Amino acid sequence: MTLMLLLDDSQELSIVVIGLSFCSYLLLKKKQPKRITDPLGITLVIGGPLTLATLSYFVSSFLGVFVTVASYFGILTLLAITYRTSPIHPLANYPGPALSKVSKLWAIWVLWRGKQHLVYKELHELYGDVVRVGPNELSIRHADAVQSTLALPKGPFWDNRSDPPSLIATRDLAVHAQKRRRWNRAFNSAALKDYEETIREKSKEFVESLGKRVEQEIDLNEWMSYFTFDFMGVMAFGRDFGMVKGGSDNQELSHLIEGAVLFETMIAHVPWAVPIFHRFPFFARAENRLVAFGVTNVEHRISAGSNRRDLFHFLIDEDGLESVKPSKGTVISDALVSIIAGSDTTATALVAIFYYLLLNPHCQTRLRREIQSVFTNGEDPLDFTKLAHMSYLTGCINEALRLLPPLSSGAQKYISDDSSGFMAGPYFVPQNTAVFVHPFSLHRDARYFSPLPEVFWPDRWIPPSERQYPAGTSDADFILNTTAFIPFSGGPASCAGKSLAMMELRAITCILLHYFQIEIADTDKVTGWENTLRDYFTLQRGPLPVKLHWLS
Ligand code: HEM
């Protein structure tokens, strides 16, 4: 009624529209929408009466209603832009591209183009250690910020993924710690010992299958995926997909994962809109197929059982150690996470190791010499105690993970509104801010890795007595700050499968170099391989064509 009285003329209507837009904006800002119902609710509660009032005022002129409603949203947007770019915004002191301050659309655009890792690195080179990469988001490149940042809860990037959320998408620290118990059991030293046999079997099968293709051009990128998919299939579902035996991705898993990860990562920038996108089969097709794949395989594993203590054994709590048994939904989302987090990342690391060994044949020769000196009597190099103590091998693996961390742009964390902010090393980060440490930038920073931070130099990881310096460098230049080395992240949500991943990387690198001479099959493709990488949270990779020859 009051509203109707106010609407005496269009000037007063304008005041009402501006006032309502302002109130809506304050409400939206305070409430920090988490689901689509939040902004919709506010808009309907405020915009609804406004529309009705305008309808009466303009006596059913639809043009009038359109102008009023458009003005309402226009002013709302203008207020958001003004505040976000104003000096009173809490992140105003942090530099960054103008568009990134205005809207998350900038980040979606950067992601879509696939070169996010390079873009953020360039931004750090331009602006310094802290860059504002979203209206309320910071990217950090400073070793002193690593520990405190990685100890924070996960960010809104993980909101509204699956219900119930998987371990990796669980934001509440207490709930996460409770879920993580099953995973920690799955990767304690006794469990890892049990997995050794599976790695041995699958590694030998890998060599056998590759052995049938010697002297032919093969795409090592595809083959590494076959291996890690098969291996995680056995671990997570008790099921061998047979990709290595058949030499093809018979489940179309690469395709499914790539589609689902790209879709999920893009919409993760607007978490409140995720449920809408999930409703459209067109958008969610890859995601839905991946979930269906998870459901089928989990059901198969439950009905078939297993004679091994595999990862699934712990995820489903077959030992009955939890007071509340995990639901089937939780197990499905966790099993899917293990396939995505466990196979794609490990495949990227393996391909990266061989990419650098191909470009640096002297490193390949030196590593082979180390393998031959440790495994002297012709045995397969699959003794995990020996593998763990091979310094040059660890150097090659660490160096590949340093230059190309499989999650190159890291994992988003968040400082909630009930905290008063925190110190990320020397930098203050206010409440309500999403923040991540950018591994790709950090790992190539000369303050932490010197000399030659952009160069594959495994010696930086080995004891000083064995280290060989490249021409023009000396120990006077040497810096190695392991705090800045975070391929597996850190803190309470660090990679749960790190030890398993390291076992796979050591075993496959050694067994391939033990049996095969590996050479570049297409120089342009191999030297340009790094340019094929697309950072969609995980790294999508192009082909790496090689030729294998049996070593006599
Ligand atoms: C070279 C291979 C791998 C790399 C580089 C890697 C890296 C990472 C990173 C960076 C995270 C994010 C942590 C965070 O949110 O701060 C992560 C999480 C995770 N990774 Fe890995 N990972 C690898 C292999 C594996 C394997 C083999 C598994 C086995 C299933 C695995 C399981 C997980 C799980 C379950 C999480 C979620 C942890 C949590 O939220 O508590 N990863 N990984």
From TrEMBL:
Q: Tell me the Gene3D superfamilies matching this sequence.
A: Cytochrome P450 (1.10.630.10)
GO MF term (any one):
monooxygenase activity
Record's keyword annotation contains Transport: no
Query: Entry's Pfam families?
Result: p450
| Keyword Membrane (UniProt) | yes
**Where is heme annotated to bind?**
C495
InterPro entries assigned = Cyt_P450, Cyt_P450_E_grp-I, Cyt_P450_sf, Cytochrome_P450_monoxygenase
Cofactor (UniProt): heme
Q: Which UniProt keywords apply?
A: Heme, Iron, Membrane, Metal-binding, Monooxygenase, Oxidoreductase, Transmembrane, Transmembrane helix
Q: Hey, which pathway is this one from?
A: Secondary metabolite biosynthesis
Transmembrane region(s):
12-28, 65-83
Question: Which family does the UniProt entry place this protein in?
Answer: Belongs to the cytochrome P450 family.
Q: What is this protein called?
A: Cytochrome P450
Species of the source: Dendrothele bispora (strain CBS 962.96)
